[in-house]
Every structure is written in C-alpha cells, then in structure tokens.
Design goal:
Order of helices and strands: EEHHHH
Distance between the termini: 65 Å
Shape: extended
Number of helices: 4
Region (Disordered): 1-23
Structural class: mainly alpha
Number of strands: 2
Strand content: 5-15%
Length: 125
Amino acid sequence: MRVTTGCRPSRTSCTSTGGAPPSARPCTWPLFHAAYQRIVRCILLGDAATDDERSTELRDRLRADGNWFMLHRRHHALRRELFARTQQYIDRAGPGGGLARAIVETPRTADHTSLRFTAAPRPAG
C-alpha cells in the first residue's frame, strides 16, 4: 500500500511502526484511518502538520459535539485551540505549506461583496 511520509509517497505498510513486514500484517481500519488522516493533514495544512494528531482529535471532538445541534454544551477552548493550530500552519512560510495556505494567498479576482443576484424578469403575457 502506498502512503505518505511528509507528503512524499513511499512504499510502506499501512502502519508507520516497525514490526511485521507489510505482507504479514493486515491493514486494519485503525491503521488505515491513521494513515489517511496523516495524508489529509499534509495536503490541507502542509508538511509540518503531518504528525499533528492533536488537530485531528480536536476536529473530531468538535464535529461529534456538533451532531448534537444545540443540545450539547459548547467547547470554546477546544475551538480556539483548533483555530490557533490551523492558523499556525497557514502562517508558516516556505514550501510545503498546504492547500489552506495556498487558498489564503490566492488573490481575489472580483469584488464578491458587490455581486447582486436578482430573479429573472417574468415573460409578458
């Protein structure tokens, strides 16, 4: 199975730990999920975020609480921590900054605040 290490593809097993060779160790859901989350962090937030499991924990916790709509207490401290961690990766200079930073750095080509959408006029008759 191909997974990434620091956003660079490498031929490894689904696990990032040593131990049994890839052919002897099955790729379980927890191992696959961990590898997948590493890839997501790397693509979205850059190379530096690849090992930041805390960001994923915060996101998952806040998402699970959000499923309760207004019936669950809010976790302002968790949200602040997640936003701060994300901003840290976006602000990081250098190559390998991730998709989030690329989006922030992309100049706007139109003034989106001045766009007005109106209904098409009805045909006469």
